[in-house]
Amino acid sequence: MKKIIIFAVLFCHFFIVMAQKENFTGRVLEPEKNGPVAFASVGLLRAVDSTVVQSEMTDKEGRFAFSGVPSGKYLIKIYYVGYREWVSEELVAGKEAKDLGDIVLQWDVEQLQSVEVVFKKPLFEQKLGKTIMNVESNPSAAGDNVLELLRKMPGVLVDNNDNISLQGKSGVLILIDDKDPHLSGDDLVNFLKSMPASMIDRVEVMKNPSARYDAAGTSGIINLVTKHVRTNGINGSVWAGASYNGSWGTNEGFNLTGRAGKWVLNGSYYYMYQRSKTGYDGETCSIFQGDTVRQTVNEFPDELWSSMSKFGAHGINFAADCYIDSVNTLSFSYRANLFNADWTSSSKNRIYYNNEVVTSFLNNSESVSKHGNHQINANFKHVFDTLGTTLYADVTYSLDHNKSISDRYQPFYFGDFQTESYNSHYYGVSHPSRMHVATAKLDFEHPFNDRLSLECGVKTSFVRNRNNSVNYLNDSLMESKSNHFIYTENIAAAYIQANFQPDQLVTIQAGLRAEYAHVVGNLVTTGEVNKQDYADVFPSLQIDYQLPKMNTLSFALRSRISRPDYHDLNPFVDIDDSYNMSTGNPYLTPEYTYSATVDYSWHYMLFASVGYSFTRGTVKDILYTDKLTNIKLTKPENIGKSHAMNASLFANIPIGKWWMMMWNVHYALGRRTFEYENRTVSSLVSEMQLFTMHTFTFCKHYSIELGAWWMPRSRNMFGTTKGVFYAWGGFKASFFKDAFTVRLGVQDIFNNNSWVSHSAYPDGTYSNMRWMHESRGVKLDLTYRFGKQNIQMRQRRGHDDEFDRMGGGNTGGQGGQGGQAGGQPMK
Q1: 629 or 359: which carries more pLDDT confidence?
Q2: Is the domain 2-104 a CATH 3.20.20.140 member?
Q3: Cα(784)–Cα(198) distance, rounded to whole angstroms?
Q4: Which of 9, 53, 254, 520 is the most buried (most CB within 10 A)?
Q5: pTM of structure
Q6: Between the CA of residue 632 and those of 285, 576, 625, what are the distances in Å?
Q7: What's the half-sphere exposure (Cβ side, CA atoms, 13 Å) at 352?
Q8: What CATH number matches the domain at 124-806, 1.10.260.40, 3.30.360.10, 2.40.170.20, 3.40.30.10?
Q9: Which pLDDT belongs to residue 804?
Q10: Looking at residue 2, what DSSP letter applies?
């Protein structure tokens, strides 16, 4: 490790002598007094079609800078409320940097009385290594929760069990405003379901995150950036929505921002309620000594739709930022998410012995869950000099508490429900949990000159998760299947990263991150304690090369880690019915992934990517069947290693100014080798996804969206999944100078979003399952905005990271090296 650190330092030092100046710079001034104009919107546009390539906001000195611009011809447009729009002459990039000097804006009397939004964000933007969805530009997102929103993100798959995968791989790290909520499994799913999509400004998908991000997430990171604004005075929005998919749902809320002097205050509240039905059927079969034992569930059509869920959530957000002076900014925030969930289910189960029904039983269950998630954050930013040397400090405390109670009643019958029940089981489960998370981090950035910058930082996190689960059978305590489990984790990390450009065509980012983890699983019930200590180094390298005529080639190497979820480490036994159970594994170890990708972009419209990854210590749920009792136990295991190849093509093509089409195709092929019941098994896995979305804009303030997602038949480790097709549409209309917006969405137009899987295990057990839910529905959202509408989103320029709330950034994430795809012309 010492050699690696020395090499990284020497490697960075070697490039200190290299330089490249920023392509375009300038300073914006007001007329008469020639004072600086802060927070003016500055856009870099392609000269040929006025498409936005990068966008900035001027700093407090009125300065702006665009760097890393590929060769080509461009225009610069500057807009600020009350001033006339300023447009540059045609500029040519690829030569020496050009300083536009002082730009003096002129008053516009008409604009003082009528203000419009300057930039129209595209629905999707594509940067090298990052795909962005601007939620406000998505008409079909009306009434969606965040989990539903992710289903409409290219490359993201949400399966029938609400597991999230990226580019065909599991192990996705979900961030909220660049911060890890430290939730997993059902807790994470319920959290995403409880947050309306209207609270999200944009979704960022990062396949190759840099060293400044946590190394967790073997397939990448999905960052959900919530809405915050930066304008003088008071502004905000209120919204209300309703949905119907066989059951009614609702969501409403408000967002309010006020700025006075050095202070900016932001607050929001939302409430949402959803109710939906689900259905499932299937069979599981085992062979023992020549005899076939088969269990079916909801075998006949009238038994299919047997589950109902109700979900209600409240959300509160508050943020305060103080611009102490020109170099110091202090921010505070609080977020609370409170939700209740009720779930009822009734299924009919039949046990066949050599094709004859020998017994049957009902599985009637009810579950009530109350969940709360709170987070308090404070961060500080200090700028040392005009070069941009900056220090960031951040501390966060989170509390997550959950209390769930579930009851299952299972009466048994001879034959096919032909007699009075001869026996019955009543299972009761109490499952309270409480988790505390504290994190602190320090980041430092130092630009040596216009060509080289160095970043470094440290971070530590402390987690304590307490679960006290109790199982009852017929009102008697099941001591062998109840436990009190305490999980503690401490992770300490440090990183160093250099960004440099040896010439005008090449940009290199090299980073090294080291993490040490101390993990303790304490099963209080038995006194068993399992400790793990491990330290790892995660190098990363990305090289971007600007080819002629707006072509870009990129090469990246990454290593990532996926630590076991808290639930996967908890040996608590969850009883589904008398024949099916699941449990955790306190001896799980992390899985490690090493990947290489090559990306190519053409004219910011076409993006192609190919990659290879190797994973060791792969974690998968394994089904074990007791041949004597036919009881099946699902348990996560470190099973072996896997190799995978993937390729994707993303095209964002404007057909005139009224039609924007987006296509994304992804294919993954791999092989997994693992040990199963003392034998070595090798299986081929494959997956393909096709995603398309078309947005039609007419009469300036109206748009229609049509989208579809298709996954053909895919192969997983133990079987196949039948192809799935999902289509949706949306309509958006804006009135009163965009102050009032109506969005109408139709989900699953053809009502065929069902999952059908076939699994065959090496021990001879096989299963066929089908899951369905009420996915076809209509959703309506009404939004009214008041105050200033030239919204300036909070973002630290050039770094979409953990300090999104500190201000002084660009608009909507459109800028940065690599630009955007399919941008809309500036008005």
Answers
A1: 359
A2: no
A3: 12
A4: 53
A5: 0.76
A6: 11, 10, 4
A7: 14
A8: 2.40.170.20
A9: 31
A10: H
